[in-house]
TrEMBL record:
Pfam families: HD, HD_assoc. This is Deoxyguanosinetriphosphate triphosphohydrolase-like protein. One of its GO terms (biological process) is dGTP catabolic process. InterPro entries: dGTPase, dGTPase-like, dNTPase_2, HD/PDEase_dom, HD_domain, PHydrolase_assoc_dom.
Length: 488
C-alpha cells in the first residue's frame, strides 16, 4: 500500500471563503448544497434578479421580445463564464487537483449586472449626477450594496427591518465572501463627495458626460476589507480581482461583442458588409476609443487602418465561404458570385440560423483565446486574460457595436427620455413631502432618524425596471395615470 502525500501547493479555496458577513443557523436539510450553490439559489429567487428582465440591455424592452434584456444577458454571461472555467480546469496543469469552482463563476455571471438602474447606462449617469455630492452612483458598487444590504433575505434579531428603531440592519442575501469577491470588478473606493460641476479631475471637456467612478461605495469599505481578508485579496501593492471575477469579466466582454452584434443585425442597424467595410468615421471613432494595457506592459491602440484590418480578418470566413478565384472567368461568373455574396450578407441579417452560426462561431473562437497566467504563491490572484490577437478582436467588435448602435439618433431619443424620467422621479421624491410617495418599506426607512435620505431615494429609483419607472412617471405627470389600486 502506497503512502498518500499531501499536495504542498496553496489551495484555491479555504474555509474562510465560505464564511459570510453574518452567522446563520442553517437547517441540516441544506447540507446537500455547497455554500456557493446556496448563493446561486438565493440570487435566482431574489427580487433584484427577476427585475433584470425589465431592464434595458441595448434596446428598450418594449420594442421586441427577441432582443436581449439584462436578465438574458446575465444568463448568457454565466454560461460563457462557466465554459471558460471548465476549459481552464480541463486544459491548464496549474489547476490540476485544485479546480476553479464552477458555482462561484456562474454566480458571478448571473449577479454582475444587478446594480444597473432603469434605462441602462443613461440611468446610471443621471443617478450619479444627482448623487455626486452624496457618494455617487455606479452599477458595480450598487451590485455589492444589493447583495449585502438591500435585498430582503435577513436582518438582525431585535431590530426592525424597516429601520424604525433607527438602525438599518438588513443583511441582503448574506452571500459568502468568495461570492461577493466574484463581483468586485474594481478595487477602488469611490469618493464620498465630488463637486457638482461640469469639470472633474479626469480633465473631461466641458459639455461631455462625467462618467461614474467605478469602484465600491465609501460606506462599504469595511465590508470590502472583510471580503479581501477572507479570500486572500490583501496582497500588498496589488489591486484585488478574484480569479472568478476575472473570468466573469472576460465572459461579459465576449457576450457584449458577439450578442450585441447579433441584435444589431436583427434590428437592421447594419449588415455584415457594414461590419467588414465600415465608414472611415466609424473606424476613426473605434481607434479613438481603444487604449488597453496588455499583460507585457505594451499598449494596444490600433490605428483606423488596423481596426479595419481586424474586422476584415475576423469575418473573412463568413463572407467568402465558397469563394474560389478560378471560378470567376467571365462577367456572368462575376455577377453570379456577387449575387451569391449578397445572399450570404442578407442571410446574416434575416436568417436566424446564420446569425446563430455567426455568434456561436465567434464565442467559441474567443473562448479558445482565454488563457491563465498562474500565480503560484497567491493562486487566487492568478490572471485570466485573452491572448493579444483575440483581445484586439473582442475590443474592436465591442466598440463597433457600441458606436454603430448606442450612438445612433434612433437610440439617443430613447436615452434622453430615460434620463429625464429618472431625474424627474428622483427630484420629486427628494422635495419636501416627497417621501409620502414612496412604498411603505422605503418610506419607513426614509423616516428613521439616522436615514441617509438621498441614498434611500436612489436605491428605490435604481431598483425600478424601465416599465415601472415609466408608469411611476406617468402617475406624477400624465393626465391618464394608472389606477390607485395598482400597488407601488
Amino acid at each position: 500500500m502506497t503512502e498518500q502525500t499531501t499536495d504542498p501547493r496553496p489551495f484555491l479555496y479555504t474555509d474562510k471563503d465560505k464564511s459570510r458577513n453574518y452567522l446563520e443557523n442553517l437547517s441540516k436539510a441544506c447540507d446537500y448544497r455547497s455554500p456557493y450553490r446556496r448563493d446561486i439559489d438565493r440570487l435566482i429567487h431574489a427580487t433584484c434578479f427577476r427585475r433584470l428582465q425589465g431592464k434595458t440591455q441595448l434596446y428598450p424592452g418594449f420594442e421586441s421580445d427577441f432582443f436581449r434584456n439584462r436578465l438574458t444577458h446575465s444568463i448568457e454571461v454565466a454560461s460563457i463564464a462557466r465554459a471558460i472555467a471548465t476549459k481552464l480546469n480541463d486544459q491548464d496543469k496549474f489547476l490540476e487537483g485544485r479546480p476553479i469552482d464552477l458555482d462561484i463563476v456562474e454566480f458571478a455571471g448571473l449577479a454582475h449586472d444587478l446594480g444597473h438602474p432603469p434605462f441602462g447606462h443613461q440611468g446610471e449617469y443621471e443617478l450619479d449626477s444627482l448623487m455626486r455630492e452624496h457618494g455617487g452612483y455606479e452599477g458595480n458598487a450598487q451590485t455589492l450594496r444589493l447583495l449585502s444590504k438591500i435585498e430582503k433575505k435577513g436582518f438582525s434579531d431585535g431590530d426592525s427591518y424597516n429601520g424604525i428603531e433607527g438602525q438599518d440592519e438588513r443583511h441582503g442575501l448574506n452571500i459568502t465572501y468568495r461570492g461577493l469577491a466574484s463581483i468586485l470588478k474594481y478595487d477602488l473606493l469611490t469618493p464620498e463627495q465630488r463637486p457638482r460641476t461640469e469639470f472633474w479631475e479626469s480633465g473631461e471637456q466641458k459639455g461631455k458626460k462625467i462618467k461614474p467612478v467605478k469602484g465600491y461605495y465609501w460606506f462599504d469599505e469595511d465590508l470590502v476589507q472583510k471580503i479581501k481578508t477572507a479570500t486572500g485579496g490583501n496582497e500588498p501593492g496589488k489591486r484585488y480581482k478574484s480569479l472568478e471575477c476575472q473570468i466573469m469579466d472576460v465572459a461579459d466582454d465576449i457576450s457584449y461583442s458577439t450578442y450585441d452584434l447579433e441584435d444589431g443585425l436583427k434590428a437592421g442597424f447594419y449588415t455584415l458588409q457594414d461590419v467588414v467595410f465600415p465608414k472611415k468615421k466609424i473606424l476613426q471613432a473605434i481607434s479613438d476609443e481603444i487604449e488597453l494595457e496588455l499583460p507585457d506592459g505594451k499598449i494596444f491602440k490600433p490605428s483606423p487602418e488596423k481596426v479595419g484590418e481586424i474586422l476584415q480578418n475576423m469575418f473573412t470566413e463568413f463572407l467568402f465561404q465558397n469563394f474560389q478565384e478560378t471560378q470567376i472567368r467571365s462577367i456572368d461568373d462575376a455577377f453570379k458570385y456577387l449575387n451569391s455574396q449578397y445572399s450570404i450578407i442578407s442571410d446574416y441579417s434575416h436568417n436566424g440560423y446564420q446569425r446563430n452560426f455567426l455568434t456561436s462561431t465567434l464565442v467559441n473562437r474567443f473562448i479558445e483565446g482565454v488563457k491563465l497566467i498562474p500565480e503560484e504563491k497567491f493562486p487566487t490572484q492568478s490572471k485570466v486574460i485573452l491572448t493579444d490577437n483575440i483581445l484586439g478582436e473582442v475590443e474592436v467588435l465591442k466598440k463597433f457595436t457600441y458606436i454603430s448602435q448606442v450612438l445612433s439618433s434612433r437610440l439617443k431619443i430613447a436615452e434622453f427620455r430615460g434620463r429625464e424620467i429618472v431625474k424627474e422621479i428622483f427630484e420629486t421624491l427628494d422635495k419636501p413631502g416627497g417621501c409620502e410617495l414612496l412604498p411603505d418599506d422605503f418610506r419607513n426607512m426614509y423616516e428613521s432618524p439616522s436615514a441617509d435620505k438621498k441614498r434611500i431615494i436612489c436605491d428605490f429609483v435604481a431598483g425600478m425596471t424601465d416599465r415601472y419607472a415609466i408608469e411611476f412617471y406617468a402617475r406624477l405627470k400624465s393626465e391618464n395615470a394608472e389606477t390607485i389600486f395598482k400597488p407601488l
